[in-house]
Write a structure and sequence with these properties.
The structure is a homodimer. By secondary structure, chain A is an alpha+beta fold. Chain A folds into 2 domains: 285 residues, L-amino peptidase D-ALA esterase/amidase (4-Layer Sandwich), CATH 3.60.70.12; 121 residues, ArgJ beta chain, C-terminal domain (Ubiquitin-like (UB roll), Roll), CATH 3.10.20. Chain A is 32% helix and 24% strand. Chain A is built from 11 helices and 15 strands. A 6-stranded mixed β-sheet of chain A has the order 13-12-11-14-10-15. In chain A, strands 3-9-8-7-6 form a 5-stranded mixed β-sheet, with helices on both faces. Chain A has a 4-stranded mixed β-sheet with strand order 1-2-4-5. In chain A, a hairpin with a 2-residue loop joins β12 and β13. Chain A starts with 8 loop residues before the first strand and ends with a helix. The interface between A and B is large, with 79 and 79 residues.
Chain lengths: 425, 425
């Protein structure tokens, strides 16, 4: 139960023949349109965040423009998200943009909306022409299959998968102003996962990765406030995970609101907004963790928490080095408490700290304290137990500053190499 | 033939029992001391570069101090380098420094020098106490075994290896001012390789990795000029390689000069200095490439060249993202021309460029031109041939700027995971 649980949404998924495997590869999520001549429309909106890669897929180029138009009220919010797997429509130049727009144009009249209200999204192989003909011929069926319920949710979640072993979805319910608000979501991940979504005002160029997450809610919240909520959530969820530290050209998180739960519009600065954002953040962290758990070849996940840095940003940089080090990832895979790799990975973030004030714990066991090894730790049975878990937690302290942060990664296995040495060709 | 080929140097290597395997693990390289009462001593010097990791081994702490003292002429140049493998003496706090100094103190009188003239260097497991007793008991034998010739060179090169499959050495000869100058070197690498040696004046904190290189020369060059030559060489050799993008706490390059080739001292700003630096740079690049070829689990190497960036630094950042992406490394391993991974890796360097002006070639085949795929490329037999080579070369153009750079990496294999999931414990 996911994207069609909130009131006002339907979804569908089918196989259009984009993937050579013949598995489902086309997904549609659509907000119901008000009946002609109906009373006051609900407060509906859309919000989205995209990869910060300098090379972006055609759908991102379209989506960035759509977001700007929607936030400046020159255009209605996105009403439908049209996703294909198997082809990322990236590094495809102007033709890629035309191909994506052709799909939006074919789909829009079937939903009673304009092409500009359709957000395209693509994931898969890079640099191949989008198989538009296959997609156009599948669009009428896809639109016809739009439905509510668990079968529709499952079809949608399945059709956006690439190397994912499991579909990913989440559901949250929260009471705001006496109304029950539902938030549903589907996501895909697995490879090219290290999202750095553009959530700040200036949207700076930083590393990014392909992760897709599509969220629906019946909360009454317009695009501007929904974007503010999403920006606040991405930084502490999707932007804190990495499978392979390789940013994709297609990372996308999009949220649609229908307003059908009713009640007063939710606006930034109010307790209602805080409640809504908290629920959205929890859901985003849930999705983010599901993505890491199903990271390509992953057998266990590990969280690095860094404390005592000068700033949260410095702590984030240190934590990111730790979870992305291949040596650390292999040690986690081998259940090897080789903590020197963790400490030296942390030392490579371009952040100065004094090892004499640095410490490291693995699970409940402090292995390094104030710059020297805790010799007894290596024979502590709790250390072996902590390393053997499906989720390993390490905490590195680098000083006495107020900055702290966490990042979530996964181990590096032979299976990762197997998957990625034999993909595409 | 390596470090004892230049006039005025001897070397030795033996097994002191530091490595559990019982393999050689103790190495000594020493400059001959002038006979008591001898005439004008030759122009001799020492220079060194160290990791920029925030967490450094005890030998680095000592070496940084030594360098500063030598360059300010408060102390004589380094006359001997004492290296152990099997234990990095890092994350060992003040005791680690005392342990290293104890070794220097035991060794110095045997060589007729002061303890300050001994540069210690360590590589191996992090966070374990240095086995000083074993080292002290081996030191007299080590000093006694100092010799010239290929056996001594081989013993020295073998004793600094860790997970290296092959010993690494290099030799260069250059005629300067009518004199034949010889430069010899040994090195080790294999894992924790992505050196960012401190070569600029302010020695900034940037990521770093364990690579050791020890160079001797009979050129007449003092410490100040030798340091200038080394700084110029490291940036375009060791600092351009990466095996695993994990900076070590122990990276060290050290050069000793004996001056025994005779002739006028070589000073910066002269043609002689330019000639010497060019020869040293070629030797350093040779060593750097040997290290990548023998990177843990590596089956082939690949060079990413980036052109058309605004600055060389921007080009370096893009090239570094390309060679360090696990997805790219796996594609290289699998001989898979999945160039979308290369282009998107390049897009993640935090450097803005317009994909419409970006192109990529793999070997002689352009696969991506001005932002669009070159469709015919994928069936070009030269592409398959280029991917199958032991050295894959990719060139990415990102615009029309003057900035360019290259980085050299290796593929990511299952063997890498095998090696690193089962090291130490």
């Amino acid at each position: 139960m996911s994207v069609t649980q909130p009131l006002g949404f339907r979804a569908a998924g089918l196989a259009a023949g984009i993937k050579p495997s013949g598995k489902p590869d086309l997904c549609l999520i659509a907000r119901d349109q008000p009946a002609p001549g109906s009373a006051t429309p609900h407060t509906a909106g859309s919000a989205m965040s995209f990869t910060t890669n300098a090379v972006v897929g055609a759908p991102i180029i379209i989506g960035q423009r759509t977001r700007a138009e929607v936030l400046s009220a020159r255009q209605k919010p996105v009403a439908a998200i049209f996703i294909n797997a198997g082809n990322s429509n990236a590094a495809t130049g102007q033709q890629g943009v035309l191909d994506a727009l052709a799909c939006c144009q074919a789909l829009a009249p079937l939903l009673g909306i304009t092409p500009e209200e359709v957000l395209p999204s693509s994931t898969g192989v890079i640099g191949r022409p989008l198989p538009v003909a296959k997609m156009l011929s599948a669009i009428p069926t896809l639109a016809r299959q739009l439905a509510r319920g668990s079968a529709a949710d499952a079809a949608a979640a399945g059709a956006i998968m690439t190397t994912d072993l499991a579909p990913k979805s989440a559901l949250a319910r929260v009471h705001i102003n006496g109304r029950e608000i539902t938030i549903g979501a589907i996501a895909k991940g697995s490879g090219m996962i290290a999202p750095r979504l553009d959530t700040s005002a200036d949207r700076p160029p930083v590393p990014s990765a392909t992760m897709l997450a599509f969220i629906t809610t019946d909360a009454p919240i317009d695009s501007t406030n929904l974007q503010a909520a999403l920006d606040a959530c991405c930084q502490d969820s999707f932007n804190r995970i990495s499978v392979d530290n390789h940013p994709s050209c297609s990372d996308t998180v999009a949220v649609l609101s229908s307003g059908q739960a009713g009640g007063e519009p939710i606006v930034a600065g109010t307790p209602a907004f805080t409640q809504f954002t908290a629920a959205l953040a929890t859901l985003c962290r849930d999705l983010a963790e599901q993505i890491v758990v199903d990271g390509e070849g992953a057998t266990r996940i590990f969280q690095a928490t860094v404390r005592g840095a000068a700033t949260d940003d410095a702590a984030t940089r240190i934590a990111r080095e730790i979870i992305n080090s291949p040596l650390v990832k292999c040690a986690i895979h081998g259940q090897d408490p080789n903590w020197g790799r963790i400490v030296t990975a942390g030392g490579n973030a371009g952040v100065r700290f004094d090892p004499a004030h640095a410490s490291l714990s693995i699970g409940p066991v402090e292995v390094y304290r104030a710059g020297v090894p805790v010799v007894a730790a290596l024979t502590d049975p709790r250390l072996k137990h902590a390393m053997a878990g499906k989720r390993v937690e390490v905490v590195m302290t680098v000083g006495t500053g107020p900055g702290q942060a966490w990042m979530l990664g996964c181990d590096l296995s032979k299976q990762y190499v197997f998957i990625n040495a034999e993909y595409t060709t």
